[in-house]
Amino acid sequence: MEIIPIFAKNLFAFQYPNETMDEFERLFDCWRDIEYLENFFEENKDDLTSDFWNTSIEKAIKSTLSEAKLFERKLLDIAKNSETESIPDLEELFKPLNNASSGLVELSMSKAYGVKYPSWLRIYAIKIETNVYIVTGGAIKLTETMNERTHLKEELRKLDFCKRWLRSEGILDREGLCDND
After folding, report:
1. Whether the predicted pLDDT of 181 surpasses 60
2. What per-residue confidence (pLDDT) applies to 177?
3. Does 96 sit behind a cis peptide bond, omega within 30 degrees of 0 on the bond before it?
4. Which of 93, 95, 135, 161 is 20 to 30 A from 79, comparing alpha carbons?
5. What is the crossing angle of helices 23-31 and 57-83, to 10°?
6. Residue 82 confidence (pLDDT)
7. pLDDT (tens digit, 9 = 90+) per residue, 20-57?
8. Residue 84: CB partners within 8 Å, gap ≥ 6?
9. In angstroms, rounded to a whole number, what is the distance separating the alpha carbons of residues 81 and 131?
């Protein structure tokens, strides 16, 4: 398992064994792939056409393609701000995974929402310290909770696995992360 720098010393992503891309690159690659999106939305058509989202597969694909481009740009711009201690920074983008969480928790699980409201795009990450995050994965989330769909449960599993791996490697802060390079 590798930790790949995405932007300077603030934004990183895991690259899992036997994978050719890190999770940041993989996510945006999927979200720009019309065939992937068509298959995903077809498999999750009931969620997409629910009272909450109430949209077609075609509109969902167009919306995702557009939002993914904006989301990636925003994330990289904010990571740049974090490097120079400007606002907005990564702290404004990433929120605790559990909405009830507050305060600083070692290696806290976090999420970032896409740029539209409401957005079904999510990036999941482990917060190493203020303005330092490692992307563990992400998903299109069409349901209220992550426990309702297999692909979202997999994202929870990855978050937990990465958190345990970081602890086992002694990577608990930026210093530990930089020592791992």
Report:
1. no
2. 79
3. no
4. 161
5. 150
6. 76
7. 999 999 999 999 999 999 999 999 999 999 999 999 99
8. none
9. 10
* Backbone phi and psi for residue 69, each to the nearest 5 degrees, phi listed first: -60, -45
139-145, Cβ contacts within 8 angstroms, sequence gap of 24 or more: 140/31, 140/40, 140/44, 140/64, 142/44, 142/47, 142/48, 142/50, 142/53, 143/47
Instruction: Enter the tokens of residue 67.
Output: 């939002």
3-state secondary structure of 34: helix
Query: DSSP letters of 146-167?
Result: GGGSHHHHHHHHHHHHHHHHHH
> CA–CA distance from 110 to each of 4, 29, 120, 176, 181 (Å)?
18, 21, 16, 19, 23
Q: Are 10 and 131 in contact (CB under 8 A)?
A: yes
Strand 121-129: give its sheet, edge to edge: 2-7, 11-15, 132-140, 121-129, 108-113, 94-96
State both tokens at 169.
Answer: 């490697």
Phi first, then psi, for residue 9 (nearest 5°) are: -110, 25
Give residue 164's pLDDT: 95
Beta strands in the chain (DSSP E): 2-7, 11-15, 94-96, 108-113, 121-129, 132-140
How far is Cα 64 from Cα 67, in angstroms, rounded to an integer?
5
